[in-house]
Amino acid sequence: MFDSLSSKLEKVFRDLRGLGKISEANASAALREVRQALLEADVNFKVARDFIERVRAQSLGQEVIQSIQPGQQVIKIIHDELVQLLGATNAGLQLSGNPSCVLMVGLHGSGKTTSSGKLGRLLHKQGRTPLLVAADVYRPAAMEQLQTVGKQAALPVYAHPGATDVLQIAREALAFARAHNRNTLIFDTAGRLQIDEPLVRELVALRDLVKPQETLLVLDAATGQEAVSVATHFDQALNITGAILTKLDGDARGGAALSLRAVTGKPIKFAGVGEKLDEFEPFHPERMASRILGMGDVVSLVEKAAAAVDLEDAQRLEEKMRKGQFTLEDFLEQLRQMKKLGPLESIVGLLPGGAEALKGQDLSKQEKEFRHMEAMICSMTPQERRNPHILNARRRQRIAKGSGVTVTELNTMLNKFAGMQQMMKKMGKFQKMLSRMGGGPASLLRRR
Ligand SMILES: Nc1nc2c(ncn2[C@@H]2O[C@H](COP(=O)(O)OP(=O)(O)OP(=O)(O)O)[C@@H](O)[C@H]2O)c(=O)[nH]1
Ligand SMILES: [Mg+2]
Fold first, then answer.
1. Does the residue 70 lie in any domain?
2. Burial class (CB in 10 A: 0-12, 13-18, 19+), 307
3. Which of 114, 218, 244 has the most ligand 1 atoms within 8 A of CB, as the residue to mutate?
4. Residue 150's domain spans which residues?
5. Closest atom, ligand 1, to C-alpha of 250
6. Ion ligand 2 — residues with CB under 5 Å?
7. Is residue 49 in a domain?
8. Are residues 131 and 79 in the same domain?
9. Within a domain: 397
């Protein structure tokens, strides 16, 4: 996500960190580079200019000059300003009515239908009873597409094949929702290549009929600051309540995310980060800023992990790791929990420096290796898992056969595991040392 912007800012930060004193001259040089990076990420030029001015004013303030690590402070100022630029805090949905209506609007292919399903699923998880409404009467396959999405999301869909009047569909859907106790209607509307009069008229009529609590503009993040002019138009016509930024997993450069709030004043409420239904998250400016600045999204990762992994289990495992009591049995458990977290790529990408580390790596190979490891450990008896040193040649042959690998592969895995155990012990000591010293460099930035 925003890889190019990230790596440019990381470079500026590396230079800044080393600075003993912030002067007008060296701050200017660094900020020029930041501005360049923003512009190359397709951030609106006025937004970039104002951003730099705010950072400059604060960087040259009294407070900074007297501090011990001025470079770090400038980084923190940039971080905080970035958070502001992205909207400061997460803007949730205001769904007060019964039923509540959400209108999904946007250009062709921006991700309205997909996001309708994703949002429906999310709201369902929060205890609401969503109904997806097929309000795109132009593309023949649109209703079917929403029905497929609904099936995947295990949500009901209201569609009226053959109907040509969006308002009629909306009335029927409202009646259907009342009859079937659905408290949230999500209207998947038609897209256009460009916003035009007929589309606006239709959407306005639909809005006036269903009186939505939320009118969400779905925007393709890859379109950069072009997305911002689209947003301005839609906002003028419909008074949107927020945006969903999709395809942030793709080659989005950041321009849309960073300019939208400043230009339109409307918050980004959700982010689409993949084609799958669960690749969707509430948009958190703080975390996004950390991600852009290459500090990794540790908070997201922790949340993701907490959802999938039992916290107590995790703590118990960590304790074992630190004490060097980590067995193959624990390893197996770990491998299985990792599977619950999702594809390796999406996990590593969230870690600090993870995006950088991923470059040129083939993770599917790694995942295959994990699967093999799992099979090998599964072929062992509990006793063998706890004491791998009892694995003699006969046992090794049996295990290799049982898991469909060669004895050499099994030996390699066991050696790797032994190495890992060693490393964990060392890391345990290292961590203890670090915590005594008051945390790593990242904590400097997080402290406010
Ligand atoms: N990688 C990725 N792809 C996405 C995301 N959101 C949507 N897509 C893909 O984008 C394409 C278009 O999505 P749709 O949901 O059909 O878009 P739409 O706005 O309903 O399109 P129209 O109905 O034709 O206007 C599909 O192939 C989706 O799978 C996302 O967050 N990440
Ligand atoms: Mg659609």
1. yes
2. exposed
3. 114
4. 100-294
5. 1
6. 112-113
7. yes
8. no
9. yes
Q: What strands, in cross-sheet order, belong to the sheet with 242-246?
A: 157-158, 130-135, 184-189, 100-105, 214-220, 242-246, 268-272, 280-282
CATH number at residue 138: 3.40.50.300
Which residue has the CA at smallest separation from atom 21 of ligand 1?
Answer: 109
- 149 is a domain residue: yes
Instruction: Kindly state whether residues 244 and 320 are assigned to the same domain.
Output: no
Q: Which spans in 18-111 are helix H?
A: 24-40, 45-59, 62-65, 70-85
What is the residue-level pLDDT of the chain in tens, covering all 448 positions? 677 788 788 778 777 766 666 677 777 888 888 898 888 888 888 999 999 999 888 877 655 444 445 666 677 778 888 889 888 888 888 888 789 999 999 999 999 999 999 999 999 988 999 999 999 988 878 999 999 999 999 999 999 988 889 999 999 999 999 999 999 999 999 987 777 888 889 999 999 999 999 999 999 988 888 888 889 999 999 999 999 999 988 777 788 888 888 888 999 999 999 999 999 999 988 888 877 776 544 445 555 555 555 556 666 766 776 676 778 888 787 777 766 666 666 656 655 555 566 666 666 777 778 788 888 998 999 889 888 889 999 999 999 999 889 999 999 989 888 887 777 777 666 555 555 544 333 333 333 3
105 shares its domain with 73: no
Report which protein residue has its CA nearest ligand 1's atom 26: 111
Looking at the structure of the chain, the number of domains it has is 3
